Amino acid sequence: MGRPMIEKAIDRFFKQDLNSAKMMFEMVLLEDPSNITAKLGVVCIDAVQDGFIEALEIFKLALFATEEEKKKVYASFVEETSEEGNIDVEWYIDNESLAQAYIETGEKSAENHYLLGKIYEKLGDIEQAINHYEQSLFLNPLQNGVSRKILALAQKKNERKRDS
């Protein structure tokens, strides 16, 4: 017998076959309307299709989270998209346990390191933020603005040292 539909949907989502993945997530929801992973998959796909490409990384984070954390992420997506029509990239960064789960996945990509840089920057850990932004830039040197972000954080770090 084949893999469960939810696994196939997740696989399609990660391969960026969004229409197929969304259809599969919706099929899962027909059988189990409370499946939080499928609900989150649908809202993340909608977000990606609306130009919020970080939603793919957020979905990856949520896969390693508890059911309760997934529900919070889902609620945040729904709240943000219904209020403003698009998602504010900063809403999820406050959840340190999701950040930790993300770190533990160990994936090495420019996008993942950039996201981790944003998470650590929001958490106030400038050293880790710089580290991840640098790794992101190393893996993809053609990124816009990452070098400026690293310089700005380095200046902020030096200012903190001077002030203390």
Number of helices: 9
What does the radius of gyration come to? Answer: 17 Å
**Total beta-strand segments:** 0
Helix share bin? over 70%
Q: Rough shape?
A: elongated
How does this model look, in words?
The protein is an all-alpha fold and 164 residues long. It folds into 2 domains: 1-91; 107-164, Alpha Horseshoe (Serine Threonine Protein Phosphatase 5, Tetratricopeptide repeat), CATH 1.25.40. 74% of the residues lie in helices and 0% in strands. The protein is built from 9 helices and no strands. Helix 1 (5-14) runs parallel beside helix 3 (36-49) and helix 7 packs antiparallel against helix 8. The protein is elongated and about 60 Å long. 32% of the residues are buried. The model is unreliable at 82-92 (pLDDT under 50).
What can be said about this structure in brief?
With 164 residues, this protein is mainly α. Helices cover 74% and strands 0% of the residues.
Secondary structure layout:
Blueprint (H helix, E strand, L loop, with lengths): L4 H10 L3 H14 L4 H14 L5 H9 L3 H18 L11 H10 L4 H14 L2 H14 L6 H18 L1
Observed structural traits:
164 residues, mainly alpha, Serine Threonine Protein Phosphatase 5, Tetratricopeptide repeat, 2 domains, 9 helices, 74% helix
